[in-house]
Amino acid sequence: MLSLLLSLLAPAAVLAAPCVEFDSNFNLYVFGLNGKDVNLGLQSSWASPTSAAVATSGRPPFTGTNIQCFLSQYNNAIYILGADNANPANVYIYDATGNSWSMSQVTAAGVDPASQVSVLDHDTNVFFSLSGGNLYQLDFGAITNVATGPTSWQAVESPSFQTTGYKPVMALAQNHIHFLDVPGNTAGEANIFVIHFAYFQPEVQSYPAATGNTFPETHGQATSFFDPNNNVQQQFAFIPDDNSAVYIVNVENNSTIPLTGPTDTTASTFAASTSALVQLTSAGSLYYMPFDQTNPSAAVTWSHITGFGTAATGSPTSSAGATNPVSRSGSSSSAVGPSSTSSGSNSNPSAGSARGGATGLKVSSQTVLALGAIALAACFFL
Ligand SMILES: *[C@@H]1O[C@H](CO)[C@@H](O)[C@H](O)[C@H]1NC(C)=O
Ligand SMILES: *[C@@H]1O[C@H](CO)[C@@H](O)[C@H](O)[C@H]1NC(C)=O
């Protein structure tokens, strides 16, 4: 019995959250969900996705706990950071044109792969990461879509703002890195690093909302909408950890538009294309919100994407997030798929209205794991 417990706990302890990203043609991919990667195709087919096979040879093990995925739009390549506990700084490259994987050897050189938060600059193909209160860069300008010789993170400088206790929120637009939730700022404010001048702007920039609320001073996830003509991003979405709203920040006219938040308030990661914001919950459920960059204030509805690959066959009837990671770690037959209607049972946290309802779910995937382990241990000792 003890060995059963340990065998259940061991995989749970290294369970990594899956991640979601697009290629340059805006096919949607889910990586590392129940040990698989899947290409769901274009937005027009998501009502009934026809999953295409993704190469398995050389794929990341998805053993990391701080995984981030990025599209290099010029190169039709997807970069995955933090996916390999054994080589935590290495970057896995998925070449979407050739449907093949390679691994770029990277030296951390002061960066903490377990906690770093990164963005990928659109034009230069350079990653920037805030780690331990310092800004670092990793230049993939020459690496593009297939790994070449080893490379290393390099220190850039320390921010002009206070980083003590700061859990970074970084958003990219117009070759500027926007730091949200910086200690001491108020709602709607961001600190800016101007990439092409390697310059921390001393002034805080404001992004007020003409109607409704601007983004709150809180931790969350950010992702940038891509330009259909392969130019720099001009708008990004910020989603607070409670998923209570989506804030569209437009860096051209310094404004914010609040939109309806996801229906599923589970801890999530997000990716954006030219015309959609996609949510992947830590339990593996997938949703999207269509978005028109030329009409950003249009009302949006979130839709559940189901029926993709083998990952979609599970149908957990309980909404207890704590049990999902554990069952995911078991054999493939217990795979937890994007579920059922259970995730829709949370009241719709439309902007600014349902904050309280989401509070209980404001947990990280690590917390969910810990709860899963505790729940299992409790079962064992009862
Ligand atoms: C946005 O803010 C920046 C910095 O304050 C300013 O230079 C720029 O003119 C503003 N843009 C508009 C359209 O107001
Ligand atoms: C900023 O630009 C967007 C996109 O064109 C537009 O919808 C929004 O109304 C503008 N906001 C302000 C405050 O001008």
Task: Set out the fold topology.
Blueprint: H1 2-13, E1 19-22, E2 28-33, E3 36-41, E4 68-72, E5 77-81, E6 91-95, E7 100-104, E8 106-107, E9 117-120, E10 126-131, E11 134-139, E12 151-152, E13 154-157, E14 169-173, E15 176-180, E16 189-194, E17 199-200, E18 205-206, E19 220-224, E20 235-240, E21 245-250, E22 255-260, E23 268-272, E24 276-281, E25 286-290, E26 303-305, H2 324-329, H3 355-359, H4 365-381
Parallel strand pairs: 8-12
Antiparallel strand pairs: 1-2, 2-3, 4-5, 5-6, 6-7, 9-10, 10-11, 11-13, 14-15, 15-16, 16-17, 16-18, 19-20, 20-21, 21-22, 23-24, 24-25, 25-26
Helix pairs in contact: 1-4
The structure holds 2-acetamido-2-deoxy-beta-D-glucopyranose (2 copies).
3D architecture notes:
There is one protein chain. 10% of the residues lie in helices and 32% in strands. The protein has helices at 2-13, 324-329, 355-359, 365-381, and strands spanning 19-22, 28-33, 36-41, 68-72, 77-81, 91-95, 100-104, 106-107, 117-120, 126-131, 134-139, 151-152, 154-157, 169-173, 176-180, 189-194, 199-200, 205-206, 220-224, 235-240, 245-250, 255-260, 268-272, 276-281, 286-290, 303-305. It has one domain (2-381): Neuraminidase (6 Propeller). Strands 14, 15, 16, 17 and 18 form a five-stranded antiparallel beta sheet that branches. A four-stranded antiparallel beta sheet has the order 4-5-6-7, with no helix packed on it. It has 382 residues and is mainly β. The chain binds 2-acetamido-2-deoxy-beta-D-glucopyranose (NAG) (2 copies). Residues 205, 253-254 line the site of one 2-acetamido-2-deoxy-beta-D-glucopyranose. One 2-acetamido-2-deoxy-beta-D-glucopyranose (NAG) is lined by residues 210, 250, 253, 255, 296-297. Residues 1-16 form the signal peptide. Residues 313-358 are annotated as: Disordered. Residues 313-353 have a biased composition (Low complexity). Keywords: Signal.
